């Protein structure tokens, strides 16, 4: 089996190592001047597509991202990792926090109509909203099979065998193509974008689009009411010996 | 077989601890008194029972590298400057030798007892007294761990102008006493330039209060500068005021693979020209260093192939777009000129941290392979690697030995390490005094940042004129006439 065309999605999010601060109006988190990077699960998605291309299973990788103008940097990183072409669906800055999985899934289903890929790979979830919904919604809209939380993907003759990470352990499934899969962290070790590749990536094409042009209504259906810090963890108590420990446990009603 | 694996195969499982006194058999214990029960009770009266330790002292006696170990029977941990003063006053009166100790991360055996010197630990002087968020100044005690200090000032948008691999364990007092260098000297300058004020306790218990938060103060002799880098031989630092730079908003890291050290120098030159003021670290390492961290610690190289040399450059600035523009220009120029054959840029903080960890974990990786002979020297940049090659050649007949070079390229500071399966005097005789003679010949420094400690004290003459050494001895006598303060360290006892 060879010559598959893959569409990979990636999202620009606040860098995983940054300390998040809640906005004073409690409606979100501070994003101004904060380091952003590609969503870690999306790195796994791109890496998997690039590996499949190296194995000659895939012949073209198109990477798409929905977001403000800076999302182009994220697309460039994906191109530097080995994607062939990019699509940037631009959303005005400031409104991107309200771009929800349902809207993204609709955008991607339009992109699928346009690009006609054999496989769509997305990251399992974004680390800002932790939604884990886009893959499933998209699969539903396209009426395609889905392989979510994938930690192993093998291609053979018009189908994929996927190992999924689930609560009870691991589940092996087989899906026919075309299909949508979502990448989990253990799927692979994403490569670094090497500098020669970063420079080559500058010459790769990024097509610009808007949700309007695709005919998608991205009005949010969910409204964020409040964002707060988790409660501060209470300090523990150190006791000098077992007798005191037993006393304290009794005091607090645990014994 | 790769030298690293060959050495590992030959190294015995137990670690090699050389007792400081046995490393130098001609070193005799000074004429100090020995501790009695009365002394111990008196110290307990000053610092409290919790401040006294007479058992399980290995961790104070032995250095981080497991290369020197002393025989102290008492560790005293005061919790205020007054307690430090009272302890020292008593030690001075009784002629008891004292070793001040911070995080015990020193690399030259300077913070460990050689014989039965009392260890004066600063671990309980760990208060961060005040942070001035407008002026960017922090006042803290000497026993604050560098990482904790960094975290605390980070809350106000500031960063400590000093960063090194030992940050999770070293104390700021120790950093000052050794005048530690680290990764960011190329950006923030030497630590002594950021010290606004200090409080020190002299060996006789007198408190020298030089605390100040003034950025400019030309009133008389700047005595605090004598204590910075004095390695605990003139007094005990208890408090410091540091000037802090702003925490950078945009940090980037790039790693280049180069075919020769000449190419590394070219890369370095180009990167400084293109990046200018945003450069915050310039480090290099050779391929055996990379192999060591790969094999021993399982840290993977971000580059596909292995290269003879690696050059790491970090930028820190206040505007991501501006910094990226400068970096892109730099990268284009580097590849156009051909001085690097491959490279990566960190796409996330995690990747940046990983790339820096490759450089920072060289010392821990080498430590795990066998016995390390460590040399930290300043040399003219064009001669930095030729010293490694000369030593490698000298060691070629020693079984299991291998030599590596890495370090702070931006400061012309080479870390030369020779690793053998176990300590042996024959290997040492091939290395010393050759290394010191070479460095001296090139008018370099035999200790760029690690200090003299115990291990290098007798080699002071290779980098300092006799008149300078004589003046140092005079100053030592002024501050410490009884010689109780960290004896056998820094100044030569046998040259």
Structure overview:
The complex is a heterodimer of chains A (255) and B (495). With 255 residues, chain A is of the alpha/beta class. Helices cover 28% and strands 27% of the residues of chain A. In chain A, strand 7 and strand 8 form a beta hairpin. The mean pLDDT of chain A is 93. Chain A is built from 7 helices and 11 strands. A 9-stranded mixed sheet of chain A has the order 9-8-7-10-6-1-4-5-11, sandwiched between helices. A two-stranded antiparallel sheet of chain A has the order 2-3. The relative contact order of chain B is 0.13. Chain B has 18 helices and 18 strands. In chain B, strand 17 and strand 18 form a beta hairpin. In chain B, the strands form 4 sheets. A 7-stranded antiparallel sheet of chain B has the order 15-12-14-13-17-18-16, with helices on both faces. A 5-stranded antiparallel sheet of chain B has the order 7-8-11-9-10. A 4-stranded mixed sheet of chain B has the order 2-4-6-5. Helices cover 34% and strands 20% of the residues of chain B. In chain B, helix 11 (287-297) packs across helix 14 (362-369). Chain B is α+β, with helices and mostly antiparallel strands and 495 residues long. The model of chain B has no long low-confidence stretch (mean pLDDT 94). The interface between A and B is medium-sized, with 18 and 26 residues.
Uncertain stretches of 5 or more adjacent residues of chain A:
none
Specify the overall morphology of chain A.
globular
E-strand count of chain A: 11
Strand order of the largest sheet of chain A: 9-8-7-10-6-1-4-5-11
Largest interface: A-B, 18 and 26 residues
What oligomeric state do the depicted chains represent?
A: heterodimer
Radius of gyration of chain A: 22 Å
Q: Provide the residue-averaged pLDDT of chain B.
A: 94
Hey, roughly how much beta strand do the residues of chain B contain?
Answer: 15-25%
Helix content of chain A: 25-40%
Q: Write the element-wise H/E pattern of chain A from the N-terminal end onward.
A: EEEHEHEHEHEEEEHEHH
Shape of chain B: globular
Strand content of chain A: 25-35%
Helix content of chain B: 25-40%
């Amino acid at each position: 089996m060879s010559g598959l065309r893959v569409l990979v999605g990636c999202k620009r999010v606040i860098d995983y190592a940054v300390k998040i601060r809640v906005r004073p109006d409690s409606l979100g988190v501070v994003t101004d001047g904060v380091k952003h990077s590609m969503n870690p699960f999306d790195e796994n998605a791109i890496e998997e597509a690039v590996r499949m291309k190296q194995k000659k299973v895939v012949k073209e990788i198109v990477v798409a991202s929905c977001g403000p103008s800076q999302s182009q940097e994220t697309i460039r990183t994906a191109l530097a990792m080995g994607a062939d072409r990019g699509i940037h669906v631009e959303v005005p800055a400031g409104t991107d926090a309200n771009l929800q999985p349902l809207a993204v899934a609709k955008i991607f289903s339009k992109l699928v109509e346009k690009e006609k890929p054999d496989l769509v790979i997305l990251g399992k979830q974004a680390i800002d909203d932790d939604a884990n919904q886009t893959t499933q919604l998209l699969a539903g809209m396209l009426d395609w099979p889905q392989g979510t939380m994938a930690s192993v993907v093998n291609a053979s003759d018009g189908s994929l065998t996927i190992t999924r990470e689930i609560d009870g352990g691991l589940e092996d499934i087989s899906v026919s193509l075309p299909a949508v899969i979502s990448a989990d962290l253990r799927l692979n070790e994403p490569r670094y974008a090497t500098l020669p590749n970063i420079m080559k990536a500058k010459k790769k094409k990024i097509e610009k689009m808007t949700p309007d042009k695709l005919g998608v209504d991205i009005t949010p259906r969910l409204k964020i009411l409040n964002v707060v810090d988790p409660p501060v963890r209470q300090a523990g108590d150190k006791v000098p010996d077992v007798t005191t420990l037993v006393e304290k446990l009794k005091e607090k009603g645990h014994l | 077989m790769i030298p690293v694996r060959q050495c590992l195969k030959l190294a015995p499982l137990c670690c090699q601890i050389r007792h400081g006194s046995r490393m130098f058999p001609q070193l005799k214990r000074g004429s100090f008194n020995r501790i009695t029960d009365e002394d111990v009770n008196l110290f307990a009266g000053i610092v409290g029972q919790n401040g006294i330790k007479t058992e399980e002292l290995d961790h104070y006696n032995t250095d981080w590298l497991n290369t020197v170990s002393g025989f102290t029977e008492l560790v005293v941990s005061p919790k205020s400057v007054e307690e430090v003063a009272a302890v020292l006053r008593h030690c001075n009166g009784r002629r008891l030798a004292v070793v001040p100790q911070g995080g015990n991360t020193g690399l030259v055996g300077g913070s460990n007892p050689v014989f039965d010197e009392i260890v004066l630990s600063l671990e309980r002087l760990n208060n961060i007294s005040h942070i001035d968020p407008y002026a960017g100044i922090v006042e803290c005690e000497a026993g604050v761990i560098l990482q904790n200090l960094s975290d605390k000032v980070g809350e106000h948008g500031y960063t400590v102008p000093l960063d090194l691999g030992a940050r999770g364990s070293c104390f700021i007092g120790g950093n000052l006493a050794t005048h530690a260098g680290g990764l960011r000297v190329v950006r923030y300058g030497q630590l002594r330039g950021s010290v606004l004020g200090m409080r020190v306790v002299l060996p006789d218990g007198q408190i020298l209060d030089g605390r100040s938060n003034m950025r400019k103060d030309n009133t008389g002799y700047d005595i605090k500068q004598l204590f910075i880098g004095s390695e605990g031989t003139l007094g005990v630092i208890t408090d410091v005021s540091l000037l802090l730079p702003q925490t950078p908003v945009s940090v980037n890291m790039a790693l280049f693979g180069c075919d020769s050290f000449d190419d590394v120098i070219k890369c370095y030159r180009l990167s400084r020209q293109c990046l200018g003021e945003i450069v915050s670290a310039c480090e290099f390492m050779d391929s055996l260093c990379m192999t060591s961290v790969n094999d021993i610690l399982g840290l993977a190289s971000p580059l596909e192939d292995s290269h003879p040399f690696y050059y790491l450059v970090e930028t820190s600035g206040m505007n991501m777009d501006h910094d990226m523009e400068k970096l892109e220009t730099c990268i284009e120029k580097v590849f156009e000129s051909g001085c690097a054959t491959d490279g990566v840029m960190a796409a996330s903080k995690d990747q940046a941290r990983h790339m820096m960890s490759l450089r920072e974990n060289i010392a821990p990786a080498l430590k795990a392979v066998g016995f390390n002979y460590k040399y930290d020297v300043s040399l003219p940049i064009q001669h930095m690697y030729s010293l490694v090659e000369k030593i490698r050649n000298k060691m070629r007949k020693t079984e299991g030995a291998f030599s590596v070079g890495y370090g702070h390229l931006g400061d012309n500071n080479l870390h030369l390490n020779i690793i053998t399966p176990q300590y042996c005097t024959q290997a040492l005789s091939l290395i010393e005094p050759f290394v010191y003679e070479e460095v001296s010949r090139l008018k370099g420094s035999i200790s760029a940042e690690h200090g003299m400690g115990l291990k290098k004290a007798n080699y002071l003459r290779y980098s300092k004129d006799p008149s300078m050494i004589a003046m140092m001895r005079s100053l030592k006598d002024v501050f410490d006439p009884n010689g109780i303060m960290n004896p056998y360290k820094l100044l030569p006892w046998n040259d």
